[in-house]
């Protein structure tokens, strides 16, 4: 088996039943390093793309976590759960008999664009310094404030009428969602069901992309145990952020954390490369001056 502690990203196809922390723990054992982190959590029920960083690449993760994400999932209309997904206790079963596709499409349209979304109560959101799910499990009535999110696209690929084993008529929607960081797909399922008067929850979720990293570059944990595949730090930065190439003098200044004059640059983090394709830093432009976010020399 190949082992390396190279600084870089590892893109995992997370299996169901694993928390994001579980995956971090597995990768620490595979890479034989404690310096492992992840860019955005996935619920245990969910599968798909989870981006992890090794070594110095952990300093990229906070910025990668802010990038666009894409999901495929199944929303079940007609039943509500305490967690807004299939892992939680059922709290209501209104059924979804007679719900028409035109009403579904109208509801989906209202949940597309810039939204104020209330996260799921059983979530990792902190309320007064304590995770919301811990408060709910302790029996507290949690009030989570709405936060701004953007749903770039929300498409229903298929709809199927079913009857649950206990006789509740439900409507399963296979959906694809492209959204900003911080968007809860469980909350979209809950809110769509509430708008249609049926209740709703998520029964399946697979993250297919985080920023530029999709399932095509993701590896299962078993595959990583056989061969640890690491995307080098510079390649990872070039793939995820706009690029600015500088000369030796500028590279030295930026490597020391100095602020320098910049050309017009895109908003947000920019990856700076020096001669010989050396990754120097992540910066952002403040007017016509640089501001260092993280230095990697």
TrEMBL record:
<comment type="function">
    <text>Responsible for synthesis of pseudouridine from uracil-55 in the psi GC loop of transfer RNAs.</text>
</comment>
<dbReference type="InterPro" id="IPR032819">
    <property type="entry name" value="TruB_C"/>
</dbReference>
<dbReference type="InterPro" id="IPR020103">
    <property type="entry name" value="PsdUridine_synth_cat_dom_sf"/>
</dbReference>
<dbReference type="GO" id="GO:0160148">
    <property type="term" value="F:tRNA pseudouridine(55) synthase activity"/>
</dbReference>
<dbReference type="Pfam" id="PF16198">
    <property type="entry name" value="TruB_C_2"/>
</dbReference>
<feature type="domain" description="tRNA pseudouridylate synthase B C-terminal">
    <location>
        <begin position="186"/>
        <end position="226"/>
    </location>
</feature>
<dbReference type="InterPro" id="IPR036974">
    <property type="entry name" value="PUA_sf"/>
</dbReference>
<dbReference type="InterPro" id="IPR015225">
    <property type="entry name" value="tRNA_psdUridine_synth_fam2_C"/>
</dbReference>
<dbReference type="Pfam" id="PF09142">
    <property type="entry name" value="TruB_C"/>
</dbReference>
<dbReference type="InterPro" id="IPR015947">
    <property type="entry name" value="PUA-like_sf"/>
</dbReference>
<feature type="domain" description="Pseudouridine synthase II N-terminal">
    <location>
        <begin position="29"/>
        <end position="185"/>
    </location>
</feature>
<dbReference type="InterPro" id="IPR014780">
    <property type="entry name" value="tRNA_psdUridine_synth_TruB"/>
</dbReference>
<comment type="similarity">
    <text>Belongs to the pseudouridine synthase TruB family. Type 1 subfamily.</text>
</comment>
<dbReference type="InterPro" id="IPR002501">
    <property type="entry name" value="PsdUridine_synth_N"/>
</dbReference>
<feature type="active site" description="Nucleophile">
    <location>
        <position position="43"/>
    </location>
</feature>
<keyword id="KW-0819">tRNA processing</keyword>
<feature type="domain" description="tRNA pseudouridine synthase II TruB subfamily 2 C-terminal">
    <location>
        <begin position="241"/>
        <end position="296"/>
    </location>
</feature>
<keyword id="KW-0413">Isomerase</keyword>
<protein>
    <recommendedName>
        <fullName>tRNA pseudouridine synthase B</fullName>
        <ecNumber>5.4.99.25</ecNumber>
    </recommendedName>
</protein>
<dbReference type="Pfam" id="PF01509">
    <property type="entry name" value="TruB_N"/>
</dbReference>
């Amino acid at each position: 088996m190949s082992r390396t502690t190279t600084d870089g990203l590892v893109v995992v196809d997370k299996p169901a039943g694993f928390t994001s922390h579980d995956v971090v723990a597995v990768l620490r054992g595979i890479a034989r390093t404690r310096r492992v982190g992840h860019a955005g959590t996935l619920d245990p029920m969910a599968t798909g793309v989870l981006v992890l960083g090794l070594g110095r690449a952990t300093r990229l993760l906070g910025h990668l976590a802010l990038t666009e994400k894409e999901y495929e999932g199944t929303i079940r209309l007609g039943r509500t759960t305490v967690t807004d997904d299939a892992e939680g206790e059922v709290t209501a079963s209104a059924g979804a008999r007679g719900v028409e596709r035109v009403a579904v499409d109208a509801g989906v349209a209202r949940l597309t664009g810039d939204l104020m979304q209330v996260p799921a109560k059983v979530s990792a959101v902190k309320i007064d310094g304590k995770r919301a799910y811990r408060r709910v499990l302790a029996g507290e009535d949690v009030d989570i404030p709405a936060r701004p999110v953007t749903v770039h696209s929300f498409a229903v690929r298929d709809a199927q009428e079913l009857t649950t084993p206990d006789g509740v008529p439900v409507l399963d929607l296979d959906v694809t969602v492209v959204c900003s960081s911080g968007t809860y797909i469980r909350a979209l399922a809950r809110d769509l069901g509430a708008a249609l008067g049926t209740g709703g929850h998520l029964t399946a979720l697979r993250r297919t992309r985080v920023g530029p990293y999709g399932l095509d570059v993701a590896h299962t944990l078993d595959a990583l145990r056989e061969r640890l595949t690491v995307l080098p730090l510079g390649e990872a930065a070039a793939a995820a952020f706009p690029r600015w190439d500088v000369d030796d003098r500028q590279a030295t200044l930026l490597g020391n954390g100095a602020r320098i004059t910049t050309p017009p640059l895109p908003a947000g983090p920019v990856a700076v490369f020096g001669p010989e394709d050396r990754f120097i830093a992540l910066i952002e432009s403040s007017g016509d001056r640089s501001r260092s976010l993280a230095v990697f020399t």
